[in-house]
Amino acid sequence: MPSPFHEVRFPLALSYGSRGGPERRTEIVPLGSGDEERNSLWRHSRRSYDAGRALRSAEDVAVLIAFFEERRGPLYGFRWRDTFDHSSAAPGQAIAPTDQRLGTGDGTSRVFPLAKTYGAAFAPYARPITKPVAGSVVVAVGGVALAASAFALDATTGLVTLKAAPASGAVVTAGFLFDVPVRFATDRLAIDHQALRAGVVADIPVIEIRR
Fold this sequence. Notes:
With about 210 residues, the chain is mostly beta strands.
């Protein structure tokens, strides 16, 4: 059973100024020869963020508390906008239907999951995108953009369903904006209002939800 999730984004005004990014889990085994072996324990990276640094006023604290309480702390997941990585396009570029490769047609398949690929020459990593922004997704088959009526998007899973199956060998691509599915990584908020006035705030950790 999927964990409970609210399709609501953490207030953007409180995520700007936060810090965070991807984490990997790697096992490093030193050998008697002085060499080492490295093994990746996680197939996908996991992102975490700290929203505490973005709080600037008592009003911000009130918004945070209301959001935290409605989510019941870490019980319900929610959307998070990574201010540095939320688009299929390169920084500063507009999204285009040819931004990211989703797969290749076989004449039968119509469902393609959204993904964003990092790197190219050595070991590119395809990151599943499960929380696209509704209305932002554009799709192309064989480099030709599709009309919005030619596909359907499930914005809660990131699955794109084409009205017609692409021909065998046709490359399916897409452009999109996206959020990160996260939850609070703590059951407790401890915010010192006096410290807030001095510019010092507590950590407010959130962590990516992976299914």
